[in-house]
Design brief:
The chain is α/β, with parallel strands linked by helices. Among the domains are: about 30-255, Rossmann fold (3-Layer(aba) Sandwich), CATH 3.40.50.300; about 270-485, P-loop containing nucleotide triphosphate hydrolases (Rossmann fold, 3-Layer(aba) Sandwich); about 615-650, no CATH class; about 655-700, no CATH class. It is built from 31 helices and 18 strands. A hairpin with an 8-residue loop joins strand 15 and strand 16. About 30% of the residues are buried. Bound molecules: adenosine-5'-diphosphate and magnesium ion (MG). The site of adenosine-5'-diphosphate (ADP) has 17 residues, from helix 4. Its EC number is 3.6.4.13. Its main location: nucleus.
Length: about 800
């Protein structure tokens, strides 16, 4: 339709422009009325029920209508009026209770009333989210609500995209949604990003953003923001830590906590259960559960990305009959977005996730939230389980607890007002997938690798958990857990290995002590028993070998060898040695003795040992270059003889020697004969004498140095005078080529004169050019000319010695 007074020939752009101008005009009226209405608003009044009860702008009203939002939720009814009036807010309400709109509406409205719109206005509101997915979701809500007439430029910065592309757009933004890291990156690197006029700061999932993980980034962001602003914090689990409030420079914040008096901290429509499930039965139980609930939407939480991947990959191979998805922080951004979109859209699906999906995400109609690994604390539990039963819908949460986790976790949940009820797993319906996993891992080394990694990260996560009342690593049967993942044995873990090794040492020491103090028959018997216990098949070895490359578990075999053969043999040998030498001290018998006496006796004792060993019929090898003979008492030692590299280690280290003028060898640092030293007098006197001699030497050197410097100066002066003379003569007519210096001067002059005025004009330009695109040789050329010019002007009146030197240097090229 064409506006009145405009002909049909008018180009549509003009029509649009006029319409926009009219709208702006109407906006102005709107703004004044709105401002007055907000003034009149009474936040304590509890009669506001619908969005239409609030003084909102037309575009926002249209947006709400198009999204079919009519009645406000509790948190919205309480928080929005306060926020419209400009208060700082700490908002706490259960998961899925509509907190997003509680800050999106005030952001749009407050900026609208301030007419903080357009490129020149700069950033008006900053909304921070702990995860990318949540930031995207918030941005989506903002877009849906704002696209019915609001003119703000809104942007999303979450990383995973090119900084440059974002940078361009940033300068125009009025509202920005993002994650802390990326926002900080832009604040510190994008020059044109102007936040000086920021009016509102919003932290969604505020407790998470303010906790340790984000502390550094958030503190740095706050440094950039103006202190005069409105700050809104929202979360399902809100901390009221004073230090946080001070960090955010909140001004008399309003606490809006709508469900604080409720009996439970979780939605009423949520049914919450837990089962007791030993670690090694978790996967069987999960698999059986999924099999029994193929017609549902399930979200499963695990403690680490590796575990998520392993379960996803292995379950996928087993034809689960329901679409599987997985999400964790180590995926590429594209994959993460894809997954959240697919899960949102899916009717039946099972998503395996880490805690990246625990907060804020609003997947429609999730039936089950299964927490396969125990959450680190009650807050995390609340957020995870809050992905279901959102906005008055129903949902179920099931928490898997190992027997050792039960007591501690229940205590924490109770303290946070989370009602969970124990249920049993129907054992009849439980299928074991262990054999399938073993088979798959056997066939697919990559899957096996994943399983090992999953095992390690799980153990690590337990080890690192802060709440030791819930998580006690000793209580978990790791060997069985590894078996349940399909692994032939528990991979050794570095941080546990040290502990283990220490323990093993202590045990073997105790054993030795006991056995040696008791009768000898037992002592012989024990190692024999040990050997008998550990007959390994070819297959055992094969499995062990496969483990090695991945977890660098090379030690495992060596350690075991030591335990089985080596330790036993050495215990044996030590005992015999002790019997031969000195049987008094039991403790020392365990370890090789390192005597504190000097080398000689060491060697003697070694030789003793060797002779006694020889006497016992063992082979003794005298290595060239080794002070101690090598006793060959095992196959391993026998093999060692074949490796030059290993033998090298047994040889003594060589000494560095220097030769004097007569060709006599000396060690690099030799000690002087003490008698000679003392004969020369007291050390203090010697020191004085030495210092005096050195001083004299230096003084003498100083005199000669000064003399040569003077001579040099004189020579320079002479040359300068010669040059002056030559110059005067050249000026008078002919160029006399006397020595090099004069020749050079003549050339420069010729340069300067032929370049004439051009050179003078170019000089500054030349200097500038060198910086950007002149090559080095060109630069030198320019410098040379400059120096020549300087020479030319300064030759008339050299002021100081430096002038002279510079001149001479220039002339000599
Ligand atoms: P929270 O942040 O509190 O966990 P959200 O803001 O994500 O909750 O909202 C949860 C769901 O409730 C969303 O799907 C949202 O569309 C819906 N919702 C929010 N407010 C209303 C409302 N006033 N009327 C109808 N649905 C709403
Ligand atoms: Mg939320």
């Amino acid at each position: 339709m064409v506006a009145p007074g405009i002909t049909g020939h008018t180009r549509p752009t003009k029509v649009k422009k006029q319409a926009a101008a009219q709208k702006r005009k109407r906006d102005d009226v709107d703004v004044e009325q709105l401002e007055a209405a907000v003034e009149r608003l009474d936040p304590k009044n509890e009669t506001y029920k619908d969005f239409t009860d609030l003084p909102l702008s037309e575009p926002t009203k249209l947006g709400l209508k198009s999204c079919h939002y009519a009645v406000m939720t509790d948190i919205q009814a309480r928080a929005i009026p306060l926020a419209l009036k400009g208060c700082d807010i700490l908002g706490a309400a259960k998961t899925g209770s509509g907190k997003t709109l509680s800050f999106i509406i005030p952001v749009l409205e407050n900026l609208y009333r301030l007419q903080h719109i357009g490129m020149d206005a700069g950033l008006g509101a900053l909304i921070i989210s702990p995860t990318r997915e949540l930031a995207i979701q918030i941005f989506d809500v903002l877009r849906k609500l704002g696209r019915h007439g609001h003119m703000f430029a809104a942007g999303l910065v979450i990383g995973g995209k090119s900084l440059d592309a974002e940078r361009q757009a940033l300068t125009r933004m009025n509202i920005l949604v993002g994650t802390p890291g990326r926002i900080l990156q832009h604040l510190s690197q994008t020059v044109a990003f102007n936040v000086d006029d920021l009016k509102m700061l919003v932290l969604d999932e505020a407790d998470r953003i303010l906790d340790m993980g984000f502390q550094r980034d958030v503190d740095a962001i706050l440094e950039y923001l103006p202190k005069e602003r409105q700050t809104l914090l929202f979360s399902a689990t809100q901390s009221k830590k004073l230090s946080d409030l001070a960090r955010l420079s909140l001004q008399e914040p309003e606490y809006v906590s709508v469900h604080a008096e409720d009996k439970s901290a979780t939605p009423k429509t949520l049914q919450q259960n837990y089962i007791i499930c030993p670690l090694d039965e978790k996967l069987d139980t999960l698999w059986s559960f999924i099999q029994a609930s193929k017609k549902s939407k399930i979200l499963c939480f695990f403690s680490s990305a590796k575990l998520v991947r392993f379960v996803y990959e292995s379950f996928r191979h087993m034809q689960p009959g329901i679409p599987l998805l997985h999400i964790h922080g180590r995926q590429k951004q594209g994959a993460r977005l894809d997954t959240t979109a697919k899960f949102s859209a899916a009717k039946y699906s099972c998503l395996f996730a880490t805690d990246v999906a625990a907060r804020g995400l609003d997947f429609p109609a999730v039936d089950f939230v299964i927490q396969v690994d125990c959450p680190e604390d009650a807050e995390t539990y609340i957020h995870r389980v809050g992905r279901t039963a959102r906005y008055n819908r129903e949902g179920r949460g099931v928490l898997f607890l190992t027997p050792s986790e039960e007591e501690g976790m229940l205590k924490r949940l109770e303290a946070k007002k989370v009602p969970v009820e124990l249920i049993n797993v129907r054992q009849k319906k439980r299928q074991s997938i262990k054999d399938q996993l073993v088979h798959m891992l056997f066939k697919d080394p990559q899957l096996k690798y994943l399983a090992q990694k999953a095992f390690v990260t799980y153990v690590k996560s337990i080890y690192l958990q802060k709440d030791k009342e819930i998580f006690n690593l000793k209580e978990y049967d790791l060997e069985k857990f590894a078996g349940s993942l399909g692994l032939p044995g528990a991979p050794r873990i570095k941080f546990l290995k040290d502990d283990d090794a220490r323990k093993r040492k202590a045990v073997s020491r105790q054993e030795l002590e006991v056995s040696e103090s008791s009768d000898e028959g037992e002592e012989d018997g024990q190692p024999a028993q040990k050997k008998a216990k550990t007959v390994r098949t070819k297959y055992d070895r094969m499995f062990e070998r496969q483990n090695q490359d991945i977890l660098a578990d090379h030690y495992k075999k060596l350690v075991r060898d030591d335990m089985e053969g080596g330790a036993a043999a050495s215990a044996d040998q030590d005992a015999e040695k002790e019997a031969a030498d000195d049987a008094d001290d039991d403790f020392l018998a365990v370890k090789r003795r390192i005597p504190a006496e000097d080398d000689v006796s060491d060697i003697e004792s070694a030789v003793d040992e060797a002779t006694s060993a020889e006497a016992r019929g063992r082979k003794v090898v005298n290595l060239p270059g080794a002070s101690q003979p090598l006793i060959i008492d095992s196959n391993r030692r026998e093999k060692l003889l074949k490796s030059k590299k290993k033998l090298l280690k047994l040889k003594d280290k060589g000494k560095k020697i220097v030769y004097d003028d007569e060709g006599n060898p000396h060690e690099i640092y030799e000690l002087e004969d003490e008698a000679d030293f003392k004969a020369r007098g007291l050390p203090e006197e010697q020191r004085k004498k030495y210092l005096e001699a050195a001083r004299e030497e230096v003084q003498a050197a100083d005199v000669t140095d000064k003399a040569t410097a003077k001579a040099k100066r004189k020579e320079k002066m002479r040359k300068r005078k010669e040059r002056e003379r030559a110059e005067a003569e050249a000026a008078a007519g002919g160029v006399e080529i006397g020595d090099e210096g004069v020749d050079a001067l003549a050339n420069f002059r010729a340069d300067a004169e032929s370049g004439g005025s051009e050179d003078e004009e170019d000089a500054p330009k030349g200097k500038k050019q060198k910086k950007w695109f002149q090559s080095d040789s060109e630069g030198e050329e320019g410098d040379r000319k400059k120096r020549a010019k300087k020479a030319k002007t300064e030759v008339q009146e050299p002021q100081t010695l430096e002038d002279l030197e510079a001149l001479a240097a220039g002339l000599l090229g």
